[in-house]
Amino acid sequence: xxxxxxxxxxxxxxxxxxxxxxxxxxxxxxxxxxxxxxxxxxxxxxxxxxxxxxxxxxxxxxxxxxxxxxxxxxxxxxxxxxxxxxxxxxxxxxxxxxxxxxxxxxxxxxxxxxxxxxxxxxxxxxxxxxxxxxxxxxxxxxxxxxxxxxxxxxxxxxxxxxxxxxxxxxxxxxxxxxxxxxxxxxxxxxxxxxxxxxxxxxxxxxxxxxxxxxxxxx
Length: 218
What we know:
By secondary structure, the protein is α+β, with helices and mostly antiparallel strands. It folds into 2 domains: about 5-145, no CATH class; about 150-215, Arc Repressor Mutant, subunit A, CATH 1.10.10. Helices cover about 35% and strands about 30% of the residues. It is built from 8 helices and 8 strands, in the order βαββαββαββαβαααα. The protein has helices at about 15-20, 50-60, 90-95, 120-130, 160-170, 180-190, 190-210, 210-215; strands at about 5-10, 25-35, 40-45, 65-70, 75-85, 100-105, 110-115, 135-145. The relative contact order is 0.17. The model is unreliable at about 145-150 and about 215-218 (pLDDT under 50). InterPro entries: BAT_GAF/HTH-assoc, HTH_bacterioopsin, WH-like_DNA-bd_sf.
C-alpha cells in the first residue's frame, strides 16, 4: 500500500532549493514535475517576485540549461526549468526509491513537500539516503491515504484546505451559487485568480490522494 509523507527540507540542502534561491517575501509553488529522459523539468509558480532578477539569477546557476516563462498573471508567473537532477541528492533519492512529488512549496529558508512512495520500505530507504547525504529535514506527517484513520486532509496543504472548506461553507459549490471567487478572495486576502488556482489544486490533490490511490491499490 502506498504511503505519503509530508516533510520540510532546508532550502540550502538540495540543489533545486539553491537554484531557486528564494528571497524573503517570495513564494514558489511547484505545479508539476515533467520527466524528460534522465532529467526532471519542474513547472512552478513564482508569487510576488521581481521577474527579471529572478530569471537572471536562475539562468546563471551551473546546473540550469534553460529557464522559460510559460504563463503570467497579475500576481504570479509560471516557469519551466531545464535542470539536471543528477546534481540534486534530494530529488535523486526520490527517483531511486520510486517516489513522486505531489506538492511542493518553497520559501526563503525551507521547502514543504508532499511525497508519495510505493510502501513504507521505500520511504525508509529514502530517509536513509537523506541522512547519508546530510540533508536536514523534518517529517511532519506520514500516512496511508486509503486507511480510515488517514485523516480528513488527504493531501491538501493547509492553504488548500482552508480555501476549499471556505468555498463549501460559503456556498461557492451550491446551485445556485451563493458566493463568488471575488468574495472568497477578500476573505482569504489573496487575488481572485489565486483563489481559482488554489481550489483547482485542492480538488486535484483530493482526488489523487483518495479516489485514484484507491483505484491503484485495488
